[in-house]
Specification:
alpha/beta, five-stranded parallel β-sheet, four-stranded antiparallel β-sheet, 14 strands, 55% helix, globular, RNA-binding
Length: 584
Amino acid sequence: MADWNGEWVKQIAETLKILASEKNIELNGAEARLKGARPPKADMGDIAFPLFPFAKEFRMAPPQLASEVASRLGESSHGRVEAAGPYVNVFLKRENIVSETLKNVLTSQGTWGNNDSLKGRKIMIEFSSPNTNKPLHLGHLRNDALGESSARILKANGADVQKVILVNDRGVHICKSMLAYKKFGQGDTPESTGIKGDRLVGDYYVKFAQWAKEDDTAEKQAQEMLQKWEAGDEEVRKLWETMNKWTLDGIGETYRKTNVSFDKYYYESQLYKLGKENILKGLEKGIFYKDEDGSTRVDMSEIGLDTKVLLRSDGTSVYITQDIGTAISRQNDWPFDQLIYVVGNEQDYHFQVLFYILKKLGYQWAEDLYHLSYGMVNLPDGKMKSREGTVVDADDLIANLSDLALEEIRAKGREEEVEDARATADAVTLAALHYYLLQVTPKKDMVFNPKESLSFNGNTGPYLQYMAARICSMERKAREMGWNTEDSQVDGTLLTADEEWELVGILADFPRVVEQAGKDHNPSLIAAALYNGAKVFSRYYHDNPILNNENTTLAKARLQLSLAVLEMLKNGFDLINIPFLAKM
RNA sequence: GCGCCCAUAGCUCAGCUGGAUAGAGCGCCGGACUUCGAAUCCGUAGGUCGCAGGUUCGAAUCCUGCUGGGCGUACCA
């Protein structure tokens, strides 16, 4: 209950100062040294202040000092204080805080947790970055989950957020699928074959690899095609456009299915030239230099790095070239206060270089670029490898999960009740998937076990959905009984039991969790808070009758507490992209 | 070689930025549905927080050095 921390810091500091002056001791910075923590057990109080740091100057043992402070502070209208060994523990006045918190939550209209810590900030966030030669895989799903969730969290903190995507639609890898299609495609289309466009194109990318094993001119032919593409060859361009559209339509369907969207699309094919121009400008100004081998390079020795090629000796652009163009173009389109790149940690070095180059080019906003670096998704026996066919396809994974969820719904006999069983199964799937991907701290690698990982029981997304659905179920029942479920006035004296107090504490803390998640770009904090809330609630309603209570006044108060928990869950679900279900 | 990151229960992960006895889920074993939805709840077992030093009243958390793993260090993207 950090909310009430400050007040007690002041009071305790004041007491310490008085004590110090009585003993002719000089005491400074008491406030800063008083750091409230949560006691290990609820019955020990709500905030604990360790007094070790003061023991030396007071020449008192910490427990002695604690009891001295506690006896002087005594009781006030906000709560009371007790010494517990070397700690001063604060017991807050529950009933006031309960009714105040519940009122705030119940009148928040689906926004509990939102705050204005980032109000006025314009934040652009790039994520997903698909290639147009193959479908999305599990790695993209983590990226998308992180990007979409971070964007929603930033918005909840009051920021003006623009979600953008960079489509890697240019390069030799694109030409490889095109070439294979030209050779083996026989005019197939997504329509004629019934195969999703991105899958179809991806299949030809695989075919190219097979073909290249037998024909060693294949790679060369792909290079030639790229040159034709760069020269604007009509036939190549036309095929390129057609196949890109297939892929993007297919990938777009996956985005729709996973509730991921973008405000603006950027295409590498349209931006690499702008990057090139800027590098040439930098070369003129002497920021970059031409190496003996003819390539254009940047010297990064002043930040302890080597040199990096920016343009090949034949003048063509490399990967980083378009990122330079993209960043500039974005600042022009929508002058941001911050630009976040959601990209895997294998590119940490790349972004260090990119940010350095933009700084050297004199763009002040280069200071506002941030790489949200995340770890890889590995399989139990190691990395996903496309060569070995161990890449987990996003669509396949989602389809399999949905089938499992559907089976589950049928097994529980809930098919009639939920009306559209497949839609419900899809929603459960997204909950399982997104929760699984977001519960891990972004920077850490994670392991995905296809057989065991995505369970619907325990610490999972569906568990959260289930708790919300159970509360909805109570709400429906209450309405049937003619109760007013809109009331936000709660008699706090009815809800002061430890479990209730704990729930109120979780609710009261949620805005701070959202704020922290925004600051740290870490959705896992939200996931953890929601799980904690759901778990505590679930024990609470298991042990305590809520509606089935002879005391109607108490029943109504408990229902209000439940509805407040529902408020937090609903808004939290939205922040980590988990669908809310009134029934499941 | 050099640089960055990681290491917590059998497995997958938390640990609120230094505080009291390190927590969940899965799995194992054992309980709870004539009662608000059992996708639930309760209990048992499971730890030298990779190793060794250091800072501190106090370290999983901070500093140093090791060990093990990942990634990067391309005129690939």
